[in-house]
Specification:
mainly alpha
Length: 134
C-alpha cells in the first residue's frame, strides 16, 4: 500500500448491486459488462463495469465455486465475504490457501486493491455513489 494512502470505505450497496447484476447476467447468458454498464452508467461510473467483471470472475476462481447472491432482505455469505474483503483486503491472508496456487491469491488480492482504487477515483468525481445503486 502507498504510504499515507487509505481508500475510502467501499459502499456495500454498490457491491451487492454489482454482484447481483453480474450473477443474473452470467446465469442468463447475457453480456456481463453490458449489464454492469447499465447499472453504473446512470451514476457516471460506467468504467466500473470491467472492474467488477474481473473482480467477480477472480472471486469465483479464487474460491472455486459459483458466487452465490442473496435476496433483498440479506446478503449471501459470498456477498458478505466479498464486502469484507473489499473493506479490508488483508483479510484474504487469513483464509486458507487457494488450491490453484499462490498466483490466484495474488491475482485476486490485486483485483481487490484495484477495485478499491477505482471506487475511490469514482467517488472523488461523483461524491455520492453510496446507496443510490439498487
Amino acid at each position: 500500500m502507498i504510504q499515507g494512502y487509505a481508500p475510502a470505505p467501499v459502499p456495500d450497496a454498490l457491491v451487492l448491486a454489482a454482484a447481483r447484476r453480474w450473477r443474473e447476467a452470467r446465469d442468463g447468458g447475457r453480456p456481463v459488462q453490458r449489464a454492469l454498464h447499465t447499472l453504473f452508467e446512470p451514476e457516471g461510473c460506467a468504467m466500473l463495469a470491467p472492474v467488477f467483471d474481473s473482480l467477480m470472475r477472480l472471486c469465483e476462481s479464487r474460491f472455486d465455486h459459483k458466487l452465490c447472491t442473496g435476496c433483498v432482505l440479506a446478503p449471501s455469505v459470498d456477498e458478505h465475504l466479498l464486502c469484507r474483503l473489499l473493506a479490508d483486503p488483508s483479510l484474504l491472508d487469513r483464509i486458507g490457501p487457494c488450491r490453484l496456487g499462490s498466483g490466484m491469491d495474488r491475482a485476486f488480492a490485486c483485483a481487490l486493491h484495484s477495485t478499491r482504487i477505482m471506487l475511490s477515483m469514482i467517488r472523488d468525481d461523483t461524491q455520492d455513489v453510496k446507496g443510490r445503486l439498487q
